[in-house]
Amino acid sequence: MSVFLWIISIVLILAGLAGLIIPMIPGIPFMFAGFLIAAWIDKFQTVGLFTIFILGILTVVSVVIDFIAAGFGAKRVGASREAVIGAILGTIFGLSAGFIGVIAGPFIGAALGEYLARRDISEAGNVGLGTWLGIMIGTVAKIGLAFMMLGIFIVSFIF
User: Fold this and answer.
1) Cβ atoms of residues 39 and 52 within 8 Å
2) What does each C-alpha distance from 46 to 4, 11, 28, 42 come to in angstroms?
3) Containing H/E element for 156?
4) Cα angle at 55 between 154 and 43, to 5 degrees?
5) Who contacts 38 (Cβ-Cβ below 8 Å, separation ≥6)?
6) Which domain holds residue 140?
7) pLDDT of residue 120
8) Cα separation of 20 and 107, whole Å?
């Protein structure tokens, strides 16, 4: 049974790492679930409850960053509701175009949404860029948190 649980743990951690750049996968929550299962396998002897608690707090922080970063970028440049919806749709449709789509989709979606709302191409470009920058800053922050969590887990597991 423990081999099966280790496989599940590793798959969740790897899926979580993939989720850092694939928006539809909840990356850090998957990683946390993998860490929790790994700690649970040996009844929290190697990786203790305090470490899991810290990793849980970092998971919550990452989820909050995810929501705030995109919204902050959009609000900072005065995005309309349509631009925010466009950024979400652009991200979803961008997934089908691979890595370039994931990068360009939110920008294109936000710009199109803003253009439809205000009919100003310059403003649409600014909103698209602001929304995209917010998403990218959030992604960089999540990647940093994810590797911090991975490092904490590995250090706790080894020592």
Assistant:
1) yes
2) 19, 20, 21, 7
3) helix 121-158
4) 70
5) 6, 9, 13, 47, 153, 157
6) 2-158
7) 83
8) 18
Q: Give the number of other CB atoms < 10 A from CB of residue 92.
A: 15
Write out pLDDT tens, residues 89-99.
887 787 777 77
DSSP H or E segment with residue 139: helix 121-158
In this predicted model, what pLDDT tens digit does every residue of 101-139 receive, in sequence order?
A: 777 888 888 888 888 888 888 888 888 888 888 888 888
Residue 124 in tokens = 């649409």
Place of tokens 């996968």: 25
pTM score, whole prediction: 0.76
* Terminal-to-terminal C-alpha distance of the chain: 25
The number of distinct structural domains making up the chain is: 1
Tell me, rounded to whole angstroms, the distance of Cα 24 from its chain centroid.
9
